[in-house]
Each structure stands twice: as structure tokens, then as C-alpha cells.
Amino acid sequence: MPTPTPTENDRNLLTVVARMTALPGKEQQLRAELEQLVEPTLAEDGVVNYDLHVAVDDPATFVFYENWQSPGHLEAHLANSHLVEFAGKLDEYLVGGADGLVITQLQRIK
């Protein structure tokens, strides 16, 4: 039997997928920066899960799979100092700089 996802019991959660690719030679530095975001984020109000992944076929591509209780909780998360500080480093780490961070907000339908 499959393991239920966070949205199995609450279809009103806001699911977020954040995808980014490290500049050549910056993969390990970006990974370390992203790993440092996990603990403080998990302590925030409204976070259900905040899971960091790396692409199996491309160690430069990272994805956060997140669920939030509401859009307001996500907005508060994005304004937190650890996220604002990280956002200031996007140009030095990401292909495409700040535009290389692609954030998609999703609502589960089935």
C-alpha cells in the first residue's frame, strides 16, 4: 500500500515545487546552502514538510517539495531572514541567477 502524501488528508494544503540548477562547479556549495535552509524552515509556523531532493541523473539540479497550511504561511516563509539571505546569493550559485529559481504553486485535485 502506498505511503500517503501530506495532501492525502488535507487537499487544501498549498504544495510548492522549487527547482534550480547550480552553475558548473557550484554544485556542492549550492547543496550546502540549501541543506542549511531545511532546519530553520521546519521550525516555521504553517510548514507541513520541506523536503530537499537532488536529481538522480543531474547532481546540479535541486528541487524542494514543500507543503504549507496556507499561502500566508508561504509568504511569511519567503520573508524570513534565512530565505532573504539565500535569495541574495542566487546570482552566484544558479544557472540563470535569480531567474533560475522556478517556483510552482500547486493545489491537489485528485
TrEMBL record:
EC number(s) stated in the UniProt entry for this protein: 1.-.-.-
ABM domain segment(s): 14-102
Lineage: superkingdom: Bacteria
Keyword vocabulary terms for this entry: Monooxygenase, Oxidoreductase
Keyword Cell membrane in record: no
GO molecular function per UniProt: monooxygenase activity
Protein name as annotated: Quinol monooxygenase
Species per Swiss-Prot/TrEMBL record: Actinomycetospora aeridis
Lineage per the UniProt record: Bacteria, Bacillati, Actinomycetota, Actinomycetes, Pseudonocardiales
